[in-house]
Amino acid sequence: MRFHVLTLFPQMILDGLNTSITGRAIERGILSVEAVNIRDYANNKHMKVDDYPYGGGAGLVMQAAPVCAAYDALAERAGRPLRVVYMTPQGHTFNQQMAQDFAKEEDLVLLCGHYEGIDERALERIVTDHVSIGDYVLTGGELPAMVVIDAVSRLIPGVLHNEMSSETESFENGLLEYPQYTRPEEFEGMRVPQILLSGDHAKVDQWRLEQSVARTKKFRPDLYEKYISKREQAE
Ligand code: 6GU
User: Fold this and answer.
1) CB of 129 closer than 8 Å to CB of 95
2) Which domains does the chain possess?
């Protein structure tokens, strides 16, 4: 899968994704992350990409022309229109289902705003999806774009070593993950639950499901209610 990030801070994207699991997937050619500097598409000699808002008010607005030109270069290279996700606190809140939907794309463009946002005419022309990562305000769309890329990447076959692990984790079954333990068997007087040492896989699976359900009920009652009503429907 190819991610293309339209941004004024390309180094931030590259620094954030060229390490760890995404970095390894990029090295292995399973993913690519291209950070396109919108400033390279400024159509003036001062490389200016923003200006004062019409009607007045604080801050600067990113101009439509360089944003559209940066997108057009990508679409021309692809030979088709591309899906463009605008990272904005006004968007739909990102979730696992959206990650799965984005993971079906061959190419995904993520558009990062800064300052007071982007001229609405550019958004109308190129944006297909508006996505927020939660109800708080950040200084720009770069961290949210990295969040989306990370969540989508781990769903691409081959990115995680263990093919199963993206499926068994939190949210894939609507439940939070069960607790994990590793050596030693005793740490500061606290023992690993005996059942995990028993070698009885059916019992272990049952214990893990019970733990997942109990945790979800305690920490995410909203998810627990959904889980229960889905289970009742299935009966
Ligand atoms: Cl996508 N962008 C910005 N600037 N702030 C946010 C956000 C996005 N999601 C939550 N807060």
Assistant:
1) no
2) 2-153 (3.40.1280.10), 170-234 (1.10.1270.20)
Q: 2-27 pLDDT, tens per residue?
A: 999 999 999 999 999 999 999 999 99
Q: Report CA(193)–ligand 1 centroid distance (Å).
A: 41
In the reported structure, the alpha carbon of residue 156 is separated from the centroid of ligand 1 by a whole-number distance in angstroms of 24
pTM value surpassing 0.85: yes
Which residue type sits at 190?
M
- How many angstroms separate the CA atoms of 148 and 38, rounded? 20
Helix residue ranges per DSSP H, the chain: 10-17, 20-27, 64-78, 96-102, 120-126, 142-153, 165-168, 201-219, 221-234
7 within ligand 1 shell (Cβ under 6 A): no
* Ligand 1 mean position, distance from CA 133 (Å): 6
